[in-house]
Amino acid sequence: MGRKWNNIKEKKASKDANTSRIYAKFGREIYVAAKQGEPDPELNTSLKFVLERAKTYSVPKSIIDRAIEKAKGGSEENYDELRYEGFGPNGSMIIVDTLTNNVNRTAAEVRAAFNKNGGNMGVNGSVAYMFDNTAVIGFVGKTEEEVLELLMDADLDARDIIEEDETVIVYTEPDQFHTVQETIKGAGITEFEVAELTMLAQSEVTLDVETREQFEKLIDALEDLEDVGQVYHNVDLG
C-alpha cells in the first residue's frame, strides 16, 4: 500500500498550501458534526473524528471553538452530505464528497468541473465499488515491528502496516479507527501526520505526463469548490 500513502501525502501537501480555504471547510465540518450530536467529542464519535483530522492540518483552536460554539448556539444553518462519482481521463475514477446547503448549486458545480476538465459524471455506485473505506493513521517514533507488536498485544487487527521514510502507516478498519489511535497514543505518540478515514482504490492506474496534467487540473478544480470536502481517486501519483 506504499503507493496509496504517496497519494495521501500528495493530497495533504496540496491542502496544506491552501490553508485559509481548508480551515473554512473544517469549520463547516466541525459545525455539522457538533450540531448532529453532542458538542463534546468524548460523547460524539463523528465530532471526535473530525477534530483528530483537523489536528493533522494544524487547524487553529479559534476556528474549532467558533464552530462548536455556533452549533451550541442553535444555528439553523443546515447542510447535506452528498457523494458524487465520476471518471477522469484514461480510466481514472473519482469520488467527490461534499457538504452543502444548496444541493442544486453543488451538483451543477461538480458537473461543470468534470465536463470542463476532460471528465464526466457517473451514476451512484459506478465508481465506489472499486474503493475500500479505510482508516489511515501515520506517525513517526515507532518501527513497523513495534507497532505490530503493540496492536497484537491490544488484540487489534490492521489491514496493513508499512514503514516509509521513518513514518509508520497503519491501515485498519473504519470502526477500529479510534481504538487503534488511542492504543498508539498510549505508547507515547502524540502527533500524527495523518489520521483520517479515506476511500482507497483497490487498484491504481498510471497516466502519461500529458494525461496526468489534465487529470490534476480536474482534481484541482474539484477541490477548489467551496462545498467539496474530500476527493478520492485511483491514479498513482507516486
What characteristics describe this protein?
alpha+beta; 4-stranded antiparallel beta sheet; 238 residues; DNA binding; Alpha-Beta Plaits; Arc Repressor Mutant, subunit A; DNA-binding; Probable transcriptional regulatory protein QQS35_14345; 3 domains; 8 helices
Protein architecture, described:
- Strands 3-1-2-8 form a four-stranded antiparallel β-sheet.
- The protein is globular, with a radius of gyration of 18 Å.
- It is built from eight helices and eight strands; from the N terminus they run H-H-H-H-E-E-H-E-E-H-E-E-H-E-H-E.
- The chain folds into three domains: 2-72, Orthogonal Bundle (Arc Repressor Mutant, subunit A); 80-129 and 207-233, Alpha-Beta Plaits (2-Layer Sandwich), CATH 3.30.70.980; 130-201, YebC, transcriptional regulation domain (Alpha-Beta Plaits).
- It has 238 residues and is an alpha+beta fold.
- It has helices at 2-16, 19-36, 45-56, 61-72, 103-116, 144-153, 177-186, 209-223; strands at residues 80-87, 93-100, 120-121, 131-140, 160-164, 167-172, 194-201, 228-233.
- A hairpin with a 2-residue loop joins strand 5 (160-164) and strand 6.
- 45% of the residues lie in helices and 22% in strands.
- Its main location: cytoplasm.
- GO terms for molecular function: DNA binding.
Element layout with pairings:
Blueprint: H1 2-16, H2 19-36, H3 45-56, H4 61-72, E1 80-87, E2 93-100, H5 103-116, E3 120-121, E4 131-140, H6 144-153, E5 160-164, E6 167-172, H7 177-186, E7 194-201, H8 209-223, E8 228-233
Antiparallel strand pairs: 1-2, 1-3, 2-8, 4-6, 4-7, 5-6
